[in-house]
Write a structure and sequence with these properties.
4 copies of one chain form a homotetramer. By secondary structure, chain A is mostly helical. In chain A, 72% of the residues lie in helices and 0% in strands. Chain A has 2 domains: 47 residues, Arc Repressor Mutant, subunit A (Orthogonal Bundle), CATH 1.10.10; 121 residues, Tetracycline Repressor, domain 2 (Orthogonal Bundle). The radius of gyration of chain A is 19 Å and the shape is elongated. At the A-B interface, α6, α7 and α8 of A face α6, α7 and α8 of B. The first copy, chain A, binds a DNA duplex (31 and 31 nucleotides) through α2 and α3.
DNA sequence: TGGTAATCGAGACGGTACGTCCCGTCTTAAG
DNA sequence: CTTAAGACGGGACGTACCGTCTCGATTACCA
């Protein structure tokens, strides 16, 4: 409420520093102290605007997700799902977003801010991206399943892969997941 | 030539202390220093046998999983899967195993020991528990899906739930997941 | 550009704690950790301002020496020397200065900071105290000797006594040393 | 009293290792643990025969001193004293004896074993070496001084030099000290 | 436009834990 | 029964960050 004179310049410098450090050192080696040094900011300035490390990176993640382009639509539901998944994977792999999300998931195991954010963040940032294609696929498909439940499952699999083998987030996995949802390809 | 003669008494005291502290403070507030203090051990004794905090808790998790009873078999595949899932959930909820696994998943985001262990550990400790029922369900069911892929998906969903809302690991979720795998109940 | 703003209060508390611990436990049982605990300070605060244990005690010794009163002057050179030596001995015996100096001498065997300091410290803190009386005694005496060389010798004997039998630093020794320098008393 | 089966081989290996480590690392970096490793001995074996690090090095010092040759006698007392001092200095400088003695002096500031030994050790090992020349010099000289007191002083100066500037233990110092005792050279 | 108050960098501070070293005691297995 | 080997409880080391705090030096709003 009293966030009156928050300098956008400073805030941006801090978020940029955070992104750079995650890239260089990884999320868990990224400290508030290091971000402050890198940003040329005082620690207090960071603590003034963000309550904790997870809070800072939640905001960073939101910024990164906001830049994510929405995938195009295709006539073929399977193809649309596949392309969308591949785009999501590329975003996680090519930017720091993947490393940040992985760190936030780790934090969510004990940090309330991260846990709360990770749920709602996905709603605005990413969930809708997948939900559209899933709904169209469900409508067109022969199997009956709830798009929301399938979304949960896909997100879970993506997270698990992000944690255990981030390099596996590639086009092949996109195809495999689409098949898992819609049945094998020769399902003409 | 001569083996490292490690005192079984001490090892057990340390693992017990680790389990107790996870219960009291949670995984992330559990420190090597604290475990040593609680166990009446020197820190060096811990570092002698375990390279890091994740390494220690991997061993603890193995012990906990070893005590897990195998679920009974049922004629009805759906019921067997449901009961097995419920048993797994109860093990995660009623013992420290859930908290330890959650911590190890968090560590796996940046620690190689945890990442490697979490894959193979599950193989021996937990994966087979679910794989049997899944295979029997697949054989009996009308839908065609690979039990191994379905297992991956189930594990992913369990992990995600363990992280975001551990209390949701209950019988209702077991039923929901069985339905997700085998189709709705009214599938007579 | 900006000076390190060190809190005088904290510095004093740390030096006081160091002095108290030397008194209680002796120099070699006095640890940085213990000083920090006693002073209610963080270890880092000590390491921030002093590079090592010897560096800390060098500063403490300077403080102690600064409080040492300069001995009075007497018409009789022998008496002046004797009284001055006795005063120096009392300072070493009655305050922690003796214990600190003994510890610093021990450190000087392997620590460069202690070695360097112990030379220059004495120059400002103690050497002049003895040099004046020695010069006047040399001028008045019949024997010819260099006050500077005699000072070295006296300091050496004092150190050796401080190490091997600190209790022997008393008035009797002051008289014996004065005699050693100026010849026997019955030298009318 | 119960030193029944002390193996001379083992003992010698330990003392040799101690000497080697002092040479390599310096006295204060020389640990019982390191000596045991180097000697291929168990720590217990060392503690069985020596109560502490100082006790071990006191024995090593005795061995080193025992090998010290007694200086030759000269007609000129000044020359005899000078040559003897130079020989003593060379022994301290060329062998580990100097480093060991320096360490023992440091230990003597707080260790009773070292303190006691350093007094009596010198009696047998070194004190007599200087006392003979001093007595002859006193008898031949014109000044009256007690050889024992002069010895104390010389020892003190040697120690102080050994601690503060070991490299200064050379022939020039031997000449200076002889002059301090016997008066300037042109004192014919 | 000049005063004044919040914000800034810098980093000191009390703490906690890290992972390492060595202490002196102990336990074990081989000789 | 003595070894070597080294595990053990313990204490201190010196370092890294935590989150709070105190400084002057900007900076930006308001009178």
């Amino acid at each position: 409420m009293s966030e009156r004179r928050r300098s956008p310049t400073r805030q941006q410098a801090i978020l940029d520093a955070a992104a750079a450090l995650v890239e260089e050192l990884g999320y868990e080696n990224c400290t508030i102290e290091g971000v402050a040094r890198r940003a040329g900011a005082g620690k207090q300035t960071i603590y003034r605007w963000w309550a904790s490390k997870p809070a800072l990176f939640v905001e960073l993640y939101q910024l990164l997700v906001a830049r994510e382009a929405v995938a195009a639509r295709y006539a073929d539901p399977r193809r649309e799902l596949e392309v969308t998944l591949a785009a999501v994977f590329r975003h996680l792999t090519d930017t720091v977003a993947g490393a940040v999300l992985r760190g936030l998931i780790a934090d969510a195991t004990h940090d309330e801010v991260a846990r709360a954010a990770i749920n709602s963040e996905l709603v605005f940032g990413r969930r809708d991206i997948l939900l559209g294609p899933l709904r169209r696929a469900a409508a067109a498909g022969t199997r009956d399943w709830a798009p929301e439940e399938m979304l949960e499952m896909l997100v879970a699999v993506i997270w698990k892969t992000l944690i255990l083998e981030p390099d596996a987030l590639n086009d092949a996995l996109a195809a495999r997941l689409a098949a898992l949802v819609l049945g094998p390809v020769d399902d003409s």
